[in-house]
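This is your field. Please look over both lines of this record.
***
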Amino acid sequence: MAKVEISDALKSDLPPNRWGKLLGATPVVLTVVATLLAGLSTGEMTRAQYDRGLAAQQQSKAGDQWGYFQAKKLRGTMQRSTLDVLRTTLAPRPLTTEAIGTSSAEARRALLTGEPPTPPAVAALDENLHTALAALEAGQNEEQIAAPLAKVKDAVLTDALRAARDRANAFDAALKPISQAIDAIEQAQADVGSDVARSLTAARLRFAANRYDTEAKLNQTIAGLLELQVRKTNLSAERHHARSQRFFYGMLAAQLGVILSTLAMAAQRKNFLWSFAAAAGVTAVAFAGYVYFYS
């Protein structure tokens, strides 16, 4: 931004009172204001671009998580389909405690009931975050999701995402010894009769199907929160972009003020060069407006 200097000859024609001093300082002050607003506009645009880039990275993570959820859901469906085929073709008998043999209580319960361990309790979500997540799962439009999501603080969303991941990790940790015990049971019963083997296979398939369903739900929650994080970052980018535009308009207004004040002083002095500079400034602003709105 070029520095505005007022010639001594022009200053001498200004009224020697407070109004004259104010008129003489106006172009300089407005130039400083315009420079400040230009810097703010650039800073907001840079922040908007950063948020757009961050949202793209977050979208990649959300896509991976959705794929993980779909894989778990598909594996659960495959286990249940295999179990249906086994039941219709071989009709395995219900598994008994004697057939399982000595093993961990968790493994016996898993094979006899088919139920995986219970995941840790869900921490209560922020009301607005819960509303946004429900709107996302229901497939509502962007406005219905953005309205409650805009009220959610970034820290609240981050904490909810961390808690969801901790819950999934805790379930995996509880599941690991049970899976190892079931594998040991299958190896120990490898040489037993076919009826017991079929019953054990059917029990394992039922347990695996329920296990994958539970894992799918846990990963669906994580994916939904990641998706909300993407939308939250995009909302921030839009906000900074709008602020950048407003600061830009303010800069144009300040520059217009510089031109008008200079033009007023030049009119009093009847100085051709100052009048020409002011006219050039008006033309530049008009051209910038044409480029901005029509090109």
